[in-house]
Specification:
Radius of gyration: 39 Å
Number of helices: 5
Helix content: 10-25%
Number of strands: 38
Largest sheet: 8 strands, antiparallel
């Protein structure tokens, strides 16, 4: 059976995301390319071990004839991050920020070099981060974010050399940057061999904070860059069964390239614009065998279209997959080294440390750190020792533990109680000895004056008078020293007790710094050091949120700011029950 259908051919649209597509090309059944609805030249893409040392910076193996990819920056956004800062993709020294979000997120800057020997266009990025625990997995897919202003956006930036001495823009004041938007340039929008491009991806909602309930034993990431060849032979209007599987299916012909497996559908006819007349896309087709009129599909041996269509996706080139691992502790708490060499606590992309006697919460990007390439280590397996000595006052943390709301009816659902027990000791004997020194000296002087008086010749009135005056003076001095000693004893205990204001001891967590929830009771208990008790055990409690992790105790010691880390493996564990 054969049909000859004569009419003007109108194609079904270009292959997704291909600049070369024109009227008359077929809409593919499947496609790994970006959406054709993206701005021109954008290259739009579909959305998508414990221990220390440095986190390896992944790079693709050196090779030619492919797309080379490297990760220039990677941030794992923590739900407690207030800014979610990333270095600007243009490398101009500024940062891009977004509002706080109650989910984990991924931020990545990817650089790619065209070593394929081909002129490419419409490059796009595909990536994912997988959180694994046994056979459980959460996958976070991401694609590139758009870059540029409202009217001229793109998904890629091209590298341009900045001439030495280049001046800032006289109107905006912006300094010249090597990374530019070339999407509006007819000549430079393509990606030639040897040229570099950049993508930025920022998945704001990877998974909510409940992801920490798993918790992951592995975090694995992967990025891939793809692009279309510009110079390709991918059009045809004549198709034979030797190279293609052909069939009439309903009101369209199905064309399957046997080499690539790509499937295209071309409608037999469609309504013309502006009127009700029919236009035919198929010039002729030959059936492989007779088939009934109602058959679901009629195999074809030959097909001719009025105009050529794009029938294959073999023109897509892609980079080798670039894979990387992240330490699972990056989700909760780990230690990372700043450029200054100082090791600080980090929860996701949130750094927690002390600067100028203040607790600082800073996004990792603003400290010029990427999660890849950092020097890191786990927090200690046991809680670090916390102790102090101030004159005769000593203190130490006996224990620290967390109680879940399921085990304490005083807590609301989702709350946790951190209990920190201090042992405080005031050396009362030491204070007494120190304060008695002036009194003991005055007593000795009085005893000496009395002895001198008893040795004076009674017949020498002047000598007697002088000795009595000396005794009286020594007695008065002793009395004054005794009064000062007794009054000062209580005052000194009070002064030393106040050197450590136990009611004001705060806890710094990965979310913020907060006061004790039983501060008033703790303050009353600590008064026992003033009233005569030399030893005291007091427990300070803090109410934490479900995913809040203790980092350090923050307190004043005789007016000096003190930061005492308590972060340790037992305090990292969450109890989802």
């Amino acid at each position: 059976m054969s049909w000859v259908l004569l009419a003007a051919l109108v194609g079904a649209g270009s292959g997704c995301g291909n600049k070369e597509g024109a009227a008359g090309s077929a809409t593919p059944a499947t496609s790994g390319a970006p959406s054709a609805a993206a701005p021109a030249g954008s290259g739009a893409a579909p959305s998508g071990e414990s221990g220390g040392g440095a986190v390896a910076q992944p790079t693709t193996p050196p090779s030619t004839g492919t797309i080379q990819v490297s990760v220039k920056d990677l941030q794992l956004f923590h739900p407690f991050s207030s800014e979610r800062a990333m270095p600007n993709v243009r490398d101009n020294g500024t940062y891009s920020t977004r509002d706080q979000n109650s989910a984990y997120g991924v931020g990545v800057i990817v650089e790619a070099t065209n070593d394929t020997g081909e002129v490419l266009s419409d490059a796009w990025l595909e990536g994912n981060v997988r959180f694994l625990n046994g056979d459980r997995e959460v996958e976070c897919k991401f694609g590139p974010d758009s870059v540029g202003d409202y009217y001229n956006t793109t998904y890629t930036l091209h590298f341009n050399n900045v001439p030495e001495g280049a001046k800032a823009d006289p109107f905006t004041g912006e300094k010249p940057t090597a990374w530019k938007n070339e999407s509006s340039s007819t000549n430079e929008r393509v990606w030639r061999p040897g040229e570099r491009i950049r993508f930025v991806a920022r998945k704001n909602e990877c998974e909510s904070v409940v992801l920490a309930d798993m918790p992951p034993s592995q975090i694995r990431g992967r990025v891939l860059v793809k692009a279309n060849k510009v110079f390709v032979k991918s059009y045809a209007s004549t198709f034979d069964e030797a190279d293609f599987d052909l069939a009439l299916v309903g009101d369209a012909v199905r064309i399957r390239d046997k080499a690539s497996g790509h499937v295209a559908f071309v409608p037999v006819r469609e309504e013309a614009e502006g009127n009700r007349s029919a236009r035919y896309n198929v010039l002729s087709m030959t059936a492989a065998k007779d088939a009934s009129k109602d058959a679901p599909a009629v195999p074809l041996t030959h097909l001719e279209l009025r105009y050529p269509i794009r029938y294959t996706r073999a023109d897509i080139l892609e980079s080798p997959p670039l894979e990387f691992d992240l330490p699972p502790q990056s989700m909760t708490l780990q230690m990372v080294k700043l450029p200054s060499g100082e090791a600080v606590h980090a929860s996701g992309n949130v750094l927690v440390y002390v600067k100028e006697n203040k607790v600082v919460y800073q996004d990792m990007a603003k400290a010029k750190l990427s999660l890849l390439g950092i020097t890191r280590e786990d927090v200690p397996g046991a809680m670090p020792e916390v102790s102090f000595t101030k004159n005769e006052l000593t203190g130490s943390v006996k224990s620290a533990s967390i109680t879940e709301h399921a085990d304490d009816t005083a807590l609301s659902k989702g709350q946790r109680k951190l209990s920190v027990t201090w042992n405080l000791h005031l050396q009362g004997d030491g204070i007494d000895r120190r304060l008695r020194v002036p009194f003991d000296i005055a007593s000795s002087e009085y005893e000496k004056a009395s002895a001198d008086l008893s040795q004076v010749d009674g017949g020498d009135a002047a000598a007697v008078a002088e000795a009595k005056a000396a005794e009286a003076k020594a007695k008065a001095a002793k009395s004054a020293a005794e009064t000062k000693y007794k009054n000062g004893l209580k005052g000194e205990r009070e002064k030393l007790a106040k050197a450590f204001p136990c009611a004001d001891v705060k806890i710094a967590t990965n979310r913020g710094t907060k006061s004790a929830s039983n501060g008033k009771a703790v303050g009353e208990a600590c008064k026992a050091l003033v009233t005569g008790s030399d030893d005291l055990e007091v427990t300070i409690t803090y109410t934490l949120d479900r995913y809040e992790i203790p980092v350090a105790l923050v307190y004043s010691l005789a007016g000096e700011f003190t930061w005492s880390p308590i972060a340790s493996a037992p305090l990292l564990k969450l109890d989802p029950r």
